Amino acid sequence: MIKVETLPINMWQENTYILSDETKECVIIDPGCLTAEERKYVADFIDSNGYTPVKLLQTHLHLDHVFGSAFIAEKFNLGMEANAGDEFLIDQTVTYAQQFGVEVDKNPPAISNYLNEGDEVTFGNSVLKVIEVPGHSPGGITFYSEQDKIAIVGDSIFTGSIGRTDLPGGDFDTLVGNLKNKILTLDDEVQLFPGHGPSTTVGKERTTNPFLV
Fold first, then answer.
1. DSSP letter, residue 183
2. What pLDDT shows up at residue 87?
3. What is the pLDDT of residue 78?
4. What is the pTM (predicted TM-score) of this model?
5. What's the total number of domains in the chain?
6. End-to-end CA distance of the chain
7. What's the sign of the alpha-carbon dihedral 75, 108, 32, 60?
8. Which residue from 2, 16, 116, 196 has the least number of CB within 10 angstroms?
9. How far is residue 11 from each of residues 21, 33, 45, 57, 176, measured CA to CA in Å?
């Protein structure tokens, strides 16, 4: 059974996720750790729980979700896995961050494995299915466990809201269409873990989200 642990981090309170199972293997999703203290916090959390990181996964490649990607990749000798649609953002990270007054030591690593619709990511005894959900960004993806009824959705959908679509490559109609056709068609009890804020469920968002009802 997959255990989901949420580490809200950085000035934007981005949710870094650690997913593990009974084998103690884990995947790290969207490491937003920027400062030395934040990076130590994430590394110490993994170490203190006895986890063995085997995957570095990205729901998308916006700044706040990749602040710690190079650090995690180097520390745990992992490649970064993401969708090709966001690849153009990688080389812009350091300079774009400067526009917000944020100093980032290096750009994220190159994508080592391209994740596409229907791909399966495995760790331990667990499987995550890749669902493409562009709209917030061109390469936005969700990691979904049908068995455990959980989905790590990045910034595509939040409790009572959806991701912004005014950033480069974003598109409102594309995002809403994908959410309705791909996320809201999952079982009502599937728990959605967004890139910011608390978790929610498919059933709650289908019936109460003002952007989707």
1. I
2. 98
3. 98
4. 0.98
5. 1
6. 32
7. negative
8. 116
9. 29, 10, 19, 21, 27
